Structures are given as structure tokens and as C-alpha cells.
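=== RUN LOG ===
request id: a7f3
mode: sequence -> structure
chains: 1
length: 540
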Amino acid sequence: MNKEPHQAQLFDPLLRPAIKPVLPQLGLGILAEGIAGLATLAALWCLIQLITDLSIIWVLYACVCWGIGAICSSSASWISHQAEANFSSRLRRQVAIHLTQLPTRTLTRYDDNALRRLVSEDIAALHHMVAHLPAEIATFIIVPFASVIMLLMMSGPVALLALLPGCIAAMYYLIIVPRHSVRFNAERVAAMETIVTAINNYVRGIRINRLFNAQSGALANYHDATNRFTQGMVMWVSHVATTAAIATALLQAVATFAIAYWVSYELSPVALAATMLFGLAIVTPSLRLGHGLDYLSSGRAAGQRIAELLREATLPKGNASLQVDDAKLTAQELSIHTENGALVEHFSHPFSPGKLTVIMGPSGSGKTTLLQILAGLEQSDSGEVCLGNQNIMALNEQVRHQTIQLLPQTNPVLNATIRENLLLSAPDASDQQLHEALTHAQLEIDLDADASILSGGEQQRVALARLFLSPATILLLDEPTSALDHANAQQLMAALLHLTHSQNKTLIMVTHDPALTAQADQHIDLKKLPQRNASSQHKE
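=== RESULT ===
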């Protein structure tokens, strides 16, 4: 219901915190660009004066005006790009902070490509729009308006007929082209996608096609896609590009000069020159409408996508500090619901320091979601998670992250060395301590090795090594042994138990391995929690 008002604005209200501080710079850029445009018009006026007064002074005046225009234009470009850089950095921080505060279930709605587009391509589109805004305002508004005034003063109202080609083309670009583009763009995109898919399928499936003697069929599909692509692009060119070329031809100097001469050939030479030159100065910006406004529509669309992300509800955040260092983590009456019904109802359980608790349950029973709620990365439908007597959502975000660390089942590492990845958890750790952590995680590897090229199982163990270095007192692990064999899993379990007991940490682990479950201090079975309050068993 509220989308239309946002679409009517150049910048969505949610982007104003990023754009508002740079408005003075953009205003200065517009002023400098406007002066540059007016100086260029003044140079044209000086040249026109040469017709009646062939004096070197007018040439000098024109050169001075061009010099002023060049200085102002370069200054405007520098100021505008400074403003754009400040705007982009503020917006990137705003988006990045917002992403860190989104619930996990919200983040799962955005795949990697969507997130990459938001934080990279969309912000780049807004950058382009902001950086070129002052120049476009001068080009499309200030210079044409001043040119019309000078044209009226020097040649009279009849000279406005010279603007006819520009007006026709501008109306075409602003009204007809968008409608044609919307109408035929879908066919063009479909043709592009078809040819790309056909090429990918043919190239990637060459070996398989040979095995099944299907090369001819794959090649026929490729040829068919090529023909459809050719026909689709020809149709698009005939309906959109051809008419655009006609409009562009109307904007060329020959069309403007012809009409200008027709309406002012009986006037004085000065008036005739003014009609031609100032008429061309007014019409020329319309040549940029074909692509000059594309960045504007792209920037607005990108701004709307970013604003939609910023409208996503974030997790609650507070400013409270942790009152007790070894506070007990407690789940109180937690309920977790999905579209398919309740996963967990009224779950309560105290997680004691110095105890390793295993959470069991079939796939889809809510184990991972429960871990995310205990970590403060997701909200339950009812109930709360407390550290001591404080709701974890009331804690300062940094305090919460320093106290609770979640190790998800998928453990991406940074594109850096193993040492650099491990030092994120313990910046002051020595190489010996890093090697000991890797040993606890069942991994022997060079600290200078590139972590990004390791196998999935090795990357998981690097993440586990970070956990052994972490100062957090509450550790949450989701299937930490999924990539380990039985022997390494047993050794890792022994190391986790030692870590929990020796450092009085609270460790909560999700696993399907009954052998590991048997070694835990406490067990929680989620299998029947939707039907009853809780099923927790304490190992004596």
C-alpha cells in the first residue's frame, strides 16, 4: 500500500541518513556545474558578437569564459565525486549494519546473488546517479533555460521553432521509448537467457552427450536457441532501436540548423547566428535522453531494493552489560512455529556452566533454529532466553557476541591464511597456541596455507579451532563432527568435553551421532517437544 509514495521520490526516506550529509556538497557541485554551463553560453555569445564587431577582444572574452567553464566543470566533478564517495561509504555501512541485525530466517530469503547485488551493484548504481546528478541538472535544466532566455532576447519568439526537433525527440524518449522498452524488453531478455542457457548446457554436457550418443540433439537445441536469439534481437531492433535512431536523426545539427535558418533567415546575422547556436545548445541535451536517464531509473530501482532491505525488521538490541561473568544461560518457555505448524512449544531448560549438552531430534525438528535463538540471532515466537536474570536481547550487541559464539554447520572461512582466520578469535595468540587449537580440531596443517582452498571438512575444522581459541563462555555447535570420521569425531568430542570442564564453559551441541550423545553431560530430545512441554534428561 505504501510503495507508490516511495517510488515517486528520487531517494527513499530510508536512504536519507546517507544522502542528507552530502546535500551541501551536491548543491555546491550543481552551482559549479551551472556556472560552467553559463560560461560556455557566454563564450558562444562572445563569438556571435564577432559578426558585427570583428575584434580580438571578443575572442579573448570567449577564451576567458571557456577557461572559467573548464575550471568550474572540473571543480564540480571533483566535488560531486567526493559527495558520492561519502554517500556510498555511509550507505554501505548502513546496509552492512542492518544485515548484521537481521534474524537468520530473514537472511535466508536472500541468496548470495541477491545480497551481492544489494551491497555491490545496487550501491554502485546509486553512486553513479549521485555522482552525475549535478552535471545532469546543469545540462537538462540550467543551460537550456538560460539558452531559451538568450534566444528570445536576441532572435525573438519565432526562433523557438528551431527547438521543434528537440521537443519531438525529447517527448519520444520520455514517453514512447519507455513503453516500447517495457513491451519488448521481456522478449529480448528471454532471447538472451535462452542462448546463454543453451550454450552452457551444450558445453557442460559434451561428455555426457557423447556417452548417450546425443551430440546431434544437443547441437540441434543450440542451433534452435541461436535462431530464436537472432529473431528476437532483430525484432527488438526493428521496434525500439530503429525508431530511436530516427529520433536521434531529428536531433542532429542539420535538422536544427535547417529550421533555424528557415525561421530567421530574414533577421540580422547576429539573430541568425544566435538562433542556430543557442538552438543547438538547447537541443543537444536531448541526445542524452536515450541513455542519459537510464542511470536515473537504474539508481531509483536500486534505491528501492535497498530500501526494501532496510525495511526488514531487525532483532531487538539493548545496551545492558553482563552483570555476572559466569551467568547461566536459560531458555524460558520458548515456542518455535513455522508455516507448517509448531516445532517447539513452551521449552524451558537451564544450561549450566561446565556442562556439555547435546540436542537431538530428527531433521526439521527445530534444532538449528533453537541454537540460533540461544545465540540471539533469531527470535522465538514466545518466551525468552536469559543470561543470569537478563534477556539476551537486552544486552549490548558486542557483549552478547563476546559471550556467546555460534559455530554453524556450514563454516565458511575468509579468503586468507589459516593463521589470519584463527587470529580473529584470539588476536594475541602465539603460533604454538594456534597449532594446539588445530590439533584439538583434528587438523595438522601449515598456518600460512590458504584457508579458502581447503576441503569442506578441513574448513570446518579450522572453524572448530577458532572455537578452542574463543574467549566466549557459551559455545553453540551445529553438527561439528559432520565432516569427520568416527575416530576423529571421538577425539574431538573428548577435546570438547575437556574444554567444557576445564574452563567451566557452557557448550551446547547438535548431533545425530548416538555415540557422541552418550558422552554428553546433558541430553535434550526435541522429537516430542511439540506434543509436550520439554524432554530433558540429565546424565548422572
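=== NOTES ===
The chain has two domains: 3-310, 329-538.
The CA atoms of residues 155 and 268 lie 9 Å apart.
=== END ===
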